[in-house]
């Protein structure tokens, strides 16, 4: 938890410094922010490489890579099997690998209505398994979520529409297999 709070504070600082710096000052600001983020991650026991360039911040650690910035791309290796709505601008993306399984996350904004995006995802996931959907709303916002799996990946798409626009998050996790040859001492298998 401490690591998340530290990184959130530093990323907020990155955004502030990049918007307030210009010209030669911007390059110096980028270098000092890169060093600050790397130092913060190292103080938490990790190693990181930080690159700030052309309005994007990329943080690479042993656990994966995170990119923040307007117009960011999908993370490297993002599965082709996952549908991605075309009319949205990616603002954050990351990829991690744990126990040999990959996970991806994307946050994006769109000028299209939340219902249009949600209906598109429903149409794209018709052949997937364990399809669940949830929709709720108030005067201020509408929230819709869909989850499904295709036997290889689990997918959760959340669409939030407010007066300012629509935000879409896509979370993808590679499905692992349970090692049945080594049951636990009680004879049951636990999955996280």
In short:
By secondary structure, the chain is an alpha+beta fold. The chain has three helices and nine strands.
Write the layout of secondary structure elements.
Elements: H1 2-20, H2 23-43, E1 48-53, E2 56-61, E3 64-68, E4 89-98, E5 101-110, H3 114-124, E6 129-137, E7 141-149, E8 153-162, E9 165-174
Antiparallel strand pairs: 1-2, 2-3, 3-4, 4-5, 5-9, 6-7, 7-8, 8-9
Question: Would you mind describing this structure in some detail?
Answer:
Strand 1 (48-53) and strand 2 form a beta hairpin. With 192 residues, the protein is of the alpha+beta class. It has helices at 2-20, 23-43, 114-124; strands at 48-53, 56-61, 64-68, 89-98, 101-110, 129-137, 141-149, 153-162, 165-174. Helices cover 27% and strands 39% of the residues. The protein folds into 2 domains: 1-61, no CATH class; 63-176, Protein Transport Mog1p, Chain A (3-Layer(aba) Sandwich). The model is unreliable at 1-25 and 178-192 (pLDDT under 50). The chain has a 9-stranded antiparallel β-sheet, sandwiched between helices. Helix 1 (2-20) runs antiparallel to helix 2.
CATH topology of the largest domain: Protein Transport Mog1p, Chain A
Q: If helices are DSSP runs of H or I spanning 4 or more residues, what is the number of helices? A: 3
Topology as a string of helices (H) and strands (E): HHEEEEEHEEEE
- Please provide the count of β strands: 9
Number of domains: 2
Please tell me how large the radius of gyration is. 19 Å
């Amino acid at each position: 938890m401490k690591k998340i709070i530290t990184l959130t504070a530093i990323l907020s600082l990155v955004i502030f410094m990049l918007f307030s710096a210009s010209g030669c000052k911007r390059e110096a600001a980028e270098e000092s922010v890169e060093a600050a983020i790397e130092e913060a991650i190292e103080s938490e026991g990790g190693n990181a490489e930080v690159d700030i360039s052309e309005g994007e911040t990329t943080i690479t650690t042993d656990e994966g890579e995170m990119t923040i910035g307007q117009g960011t791309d999908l993370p490297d290796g993002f599965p082709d099997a996952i549908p991605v709505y075309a009319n949205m601008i990616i603002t954050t993306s990351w990829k991690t690998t744990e126990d040999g399984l990959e996970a991806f996350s994307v946050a994006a904004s769109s000028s299209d209505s939340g219902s249009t995006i949600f209906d598109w995802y429903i149409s794209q996931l018709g052949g997937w398994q364990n399809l669940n959907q949830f929709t709720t709303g108030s005067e201020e916002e509408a929230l819709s979520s869909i989850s499904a799996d295709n036997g290889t990946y689990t997918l959760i798409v959340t669409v939030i529409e407010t007066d300012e626009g629509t935000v879409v998050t896509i979370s993808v996790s590679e499905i692992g297999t349970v090692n049945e040859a080594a049951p636990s001492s009680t004879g049951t298998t636990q999955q996280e």
